[in-house]
Amino acid sequence: MSLRTMAWAEAVTESARKQTRPLPPPRNTTYLPPHLRYSGGGGDGGGYSSYGRGSSESTQYGFGGGGYRGGGRSGPGRDGGRGGRGGGGGGRSRGWVQTPRPNREAFHDVSGKFEQLKVREGDDVGNVGINFDAYEDIPVEASGEDVPVPASTFGEIDLGECLNNNIKRCRYVKPTPVQRHAIPIAMAGRDLMACAQTGSGKTAAFCFPIISGVLAKCVERSQSNGDGWTAFPRALILSPTRELASQIFEEAEKFAYQSGAKVAVVYGGAPMGQQLRDLERGVDILVATPGRLVDMIERSRVSLKMIKYLALDEADRMLDMGFEPQIRKIVQRMDMPPPGARQTLLFSATFPHEIQRLAADFLKNYIFLTVGRVGSSTDLIAQKVEFVRDMDKIEHLCGLLKNQRDNETHGKLALTLVFVETKKGANQLENWLSRNGFPAIAIHGDKVQMERERALRLFKCGTTPILVATDVASRGLDIPHVAHVINFDFPKSIDDYVHRIGRTGRAGKSGLATAFFSEKNQPLAKALVELMKESKQEVPNWLNDYAEQSLSYGGDQSQRYSSSNFGGYDVRRSENYYGSGSNGYGDSSVGAAAATCNDVSGSYATGSFGYGGNYGNSSVDEPAASYNGSYGGETDAAGTAGSSSFGNYENIVAGGWD
Ligand SMILES: Nc1ncnc2c1ncn2[C@@H]1O[C@H](COP(=O)(O)OP(=O)(O)OP(=O)(O)O)[C@@H](O)[C@H]1O
C-alpha cells in the first residue's frame, strides 16, 4: 500500500468515524428461515441446544477444567468433556452410519495446507496472492427483459470523474464479474436481484450506481419540521447487522469522497445523539439497520419519501422470517415510493427460492443476476470437513490452533475466526482459549456495541488473532487476512456455511475453512457435498456416506436452489412469470431471457489487480456509550424469538433488532 493511498484512506475513515439421529424436517409449506431448519435436537428429545438437556451448560464442549490433552494438562478438562457428552450425546444412533473416528492425520493435512495458503496470503506489499483472475471462468447468468450489456472496464461505464478518481484511489483496477454486470444494469435504472460469491465485490456493485445516480441530481436533503429537522435521503442501504452497516458506510464514504454526496449511518447500540446530528446536516445516502431506522422515522427524523434507490445487502437474510416484517414496514408502510418510482437492488451470496418469491414484492420488472451458482462458494477457499464429536471438539480445536501456531513464523497465529452457535458458547470458548494460551476474544449479540467493536478491532489488527463469533459475524464482514475460518459448531444451514466460510478467501485471495461435523449435522450432508464438489474440494468418504443416507432419509437441503447446471436459477423461469421469450444478451430456451457467459472479456487473463486490502484495517472505534433501549438487542441468528416447535433457543436469540 502506498503511503499516499494509505493517508487518503485513513483521512476518509477518520472523518467518517468519530447426536443423534435428527428428526426429519417438517414437511410444511410455509417458509422457514435457514437458521430454524434442522435444528439438531438431542436424542433426549430435546431442544434447540444441540448438546442436549442433560449436559451441564459449562461442560457442553468439555470446557470443564481447562486444558486439553495436547497441552499437557490433566484430568479435569477431559472429565469436563465427558460430562458434556454424558448429557448431550444421549441419542447417538447405532448401526445407522458408521461413526468415523476423528482423523489425527487431518491435523497435519490442515496445517500443511495452511502453510501453503499462508505463503500466498501473506505479502501485502507486492500484492502477492491477490488473484482476481480466479473469477475469470466463473459462469454468469442474467435473466429478465432487455438485460443491459455488461462492461469490461470501469471506463466503459459513465460513473463520472469524481467516482472514477475514487475507484483509482481504492486501487480497483478492473471491475469484478458481479460489478461488470450489475453496475450497467443498475445504471440503466433497472431493478436487480444479484447473487454473487462472498468477497466478490458486491458492495461496490451497488454503491457505485447509487452514488453516481445521487450525484446526477441535487435536491434538498433536510427540512425543518417545526420540532427539529427531518432528513430526506435519496438512497437507503439496509444491512442486517451494525458492524456491516458501519463497514458499508465506510466503503460508501470512500467511494463518495469529495463528490459532494453525503453519506450517513444509523444503527442500534450506538448513541442516538451523534447519529441525529449527522442526519441534521443532511444526507443523500443513508446506511441503516432496520430497527434504528424505524425509530428515526417514527421520530420524524427521517422521511423516505424522496428515496430513489433502495439497496438491501444480504437481502435473503433481510427478507427471512426474522427481518421480513420490519423490512415490509420500512418499504411498504412508511412513506417510501413504490416499486417503479424507486429503484431496488438486492444483493447476497445466497438466494433461496422462497426468498426470491418474497423479494418479488419489492421489485418491478427486475433482472436476476447470478455470478457462480446461487449459494456457491468460491474455490479460493480450501474447505476441510472433519468428523468431530462434541466431546472432542475442544481438543481438536486446540490441536488445530497449536499446529497453526507452530507453523507460523515468529510463533504468531494467523487471523482465525471460530464460529459457534450460541452466545454462551462463544463466551465459554473465549474464556477457555484465553486461559489456555490462545489469545481469543468473542463477539456476539449480548455484548454491548462498544465491546463488539473492540473485539473486531483487536482481531483485525492481530492483537487478538482468534475471534470466537456467533452468526452475528457471519455475513458481509470484510476483514482482510482472515486466514482460517473454523466452524466449531456446524451451522444450521448451508447458506450460513457459505457466508461463514466466505469471511476468508476474499477479493481473490486464498483461504482455509475447517468444519467440525458430526452425526447430528447429517441433514446438511448432501448439500455440503454438492457445494464442496462444485467448488472442486475433496470430499471425505464418510461425508459421502452421510450424504447418501440423508437422501433416503429425506432430510437434505440440497434442493434449495433447484437444478441448474451452472449459474443461478431465477425462480421466475420455473414459474411461468414470462410468456414467450424476451431478450437478454444471449439466447434462451426458456421464457425468461437468460444469458450465460463465461464473462465478457478476455481482459482478466492478463494483469493483476492493484487491490492491496488497503482499507480493510480501518478500525471501528467510535465507542458506543449507551444502548438504545428498544433496539439495543442483537439477533445472532434471527430476529425471531419465542416458542416454536424447534424447542427453546434461549442461548441463541435475545430478541430485538439491531
Ligand atoms: N474491483 C475491485 N478490485 C479490487 N478489489 C475489489 C474490487 N471490488 C471489491 N474489491 C475488494 O474486495 C473485497 C470484498 O468486497 P465486498 O466486501 O464488497 O464483497 P462482497 O461480495 O460484498 O462479500 P460478502 O458476500 O461477504 O458480503 C473488499 O475488500 C473490496 O475492497
TrEMBL record:
Q: Does the entry feature the keyword Hydrolase, yes or no?
A: yes
- Record domain Helicase C-terminal: where: 393-547
Task: Give the superkingdom in one word.
Answer: Eukaryota
Q: What is this enzyme's catalytic activity, as reactions?
A: ATP + H2O = ADP + phosphate + H(+)
The answer to whether the entry has keyword Hydrolase is yes
- Name the UniProt key words of this record, in alphabetical order: ATP-binding, Helicase, Hydrolase, Nucleotide-binding, RNA-binding
Pinpoint motif Q motif by residue range. Answer: 152-180
| UniProt domain DEAD-box RNA helicase Q: residue ranges | 152-180
Task: Note the Gene3D superfamilies from the entry.
Answer: P-loop containing nucleotide triphosphate hydrolases (3.40.50.300)
- Family indicated by similarity: Belongs to the DEAD box helicase family. DDX3/DED1 subfamily.
UniProt protein name: RNA helicase
Species of origin: Rosa chinensis (China rose)
